[in-house]
Amino acid sequence: MPEKWKDQWGNAAKRYKKKAGDANKINALFKRYSAVGNLKSRWQSWASEHTVNQKLNPFCKYFNHDYSMSLRLQKGEEGYVRRKEGTKTAGKAKRAEQHIHREIGDMCFVIRTMADQMERPTFTFGQLFDRYVRISDKVVGILMRARKHRKVAFEGEMLWQGQDEGVIITLLV
To answer: Which residues form the Costars domain (predicted)?
Structure first.
């Protein structure tokens, strides 16, 4: 065989090996990431998750009370009475909490403006109700929430317009 043909034959063999190697890589990737394989694995994971959920569903015939109670969070554990992070419900709860804190801050600001340089501003519920007209229907709820966060103090559990107008409200912050 002449030298010229050997070089051409060698180059052709190298190109063929390279293309075959590329084809093998593509086939391997296709097998690993094939749509059918992906669907099968997703279906399998859904099926196993569904089986667990049915054990936790009290309206299903596969409900397992002991298993359900073993997974239940107990008071004091991390995540008890909290929404799962990243869910829409958790986002709504966070926005609602921010809104309440803004409302409490607004109420404390109104009380401070009424204070006229008092050390511990004190007012009656009637005075505050008349002054805080912007959202007067929410005054009681915001006052109770502010008391929970130790921003204000007052006597009693609930304040009613008319009968509790003389109750003294003290700003603590």
So the answer is: 98-172
